Amino acid sequence: MNRVIHCADAAATGVAAASLASVLRPGDLILLQGDLGAGKTTFTQGLARALGVESPVTSPTFVLMNVYPTRAGFDLVHVDVYRLDRLSEVADLALPEMLEDGAVAVVEWGDRVTAALPGDHLMIRITPGEQPGRTLTLEPSGASWTRRLAQVPA
Questions:
Q1: How far, in whole angstroms, is CA 143 from its chain's centroid?
Q2: Model pTM?
Q3: Smallest Cα–Cα separation from 25: which of 73, 97, 65?
Q4: Crossing angle for the helix pair 10-21 and 40-50, nearest 10 degrees?
Q5: pLDDT confidence of 131, banded at 50, 70, 90?
Q6: Checking phi first, is residue 39 left (phi over 0); if not, alpha (psi -120 to 50) or beta?
Q7: For a designed S-S bond to 26, which of 34, 74, 80, 137 qualifies (C-beta 3.0 to 4.6 A apart)?
Q8: By residue range, what is the domain housing residue 116?
Q9: Do residues 112 and 18 make contact, with C-beta atoms less than 8 angstroms apart?
Q10: Comparing C-alpha atoms, which of 67, 62, 64, 7 is closest to residue 39?
Q11: Count of domains for the chain
Q12: Is the dihedral of CA 11, 124, 104, 143 positive or negative?
């Protein structure tokens, strides 16, 4: 069952992302979908802060991937696949291997590459609301996320 969170502004988006941090486990995959400027990086920044990432979290649009150590004991891998042309390029990033090694990954434009990634993931669709607000629709895929979504604090 999906969960919908309405965020009044960027700060509320960060708070919503932070609430997700409490249920993350090594190997988790979060896919973000939303138009340019929807708040995908803002969401990731809020999640990173909650996980204790100390360095600035920036959009990996041109570098494709940034890896941040967390105080939670795993790396946070932030990926942007907007510029990739083929699914095979996702394999070149070695993302499945990083997940197997215990990293948590957040993939911007993740809806474009679901076929190349593990089926157990959380899709977060970010849609604009009244500016500067937005709506987050959390869609679990797989048994693990279906079970854990109810544990995410409101």
A1: 18
A2: 0.94
A3: 73
A4: 50
A5: confident
A6: left
A7: 74
A8: 3-149
A9: no
A10: 7
A11: 1
A12: positive
* Residue 55 DSSP label: S
Q: What CA–CA distances, in Å, run from 104 to 5, 121, 125?
A: 22, 11, 18
Contacts of 64 (CB under 8 A, 6+ apart): 79, 80, 81, 83, 84, 93
Q: Is residue 128 part of a domain?
A: yes
Give the position of tokens 């090694």: 101
Please indicate, yes or no, if residue 143 is contained in any of the structural domains: yes
Write the CATH number for 30: 3.40.50.300
pLDDT score, position 145: 94
Name 93's Cβ contacts closer than 8 Å, sequence gap at least 6. Answer: 64, 65, 79
Q: Say yes or no to pLDDT of 55 above 90.
A: yes
What integer pLDDT is reported at residue 134 of this predicted model? 94
Is 154 within a domain? no
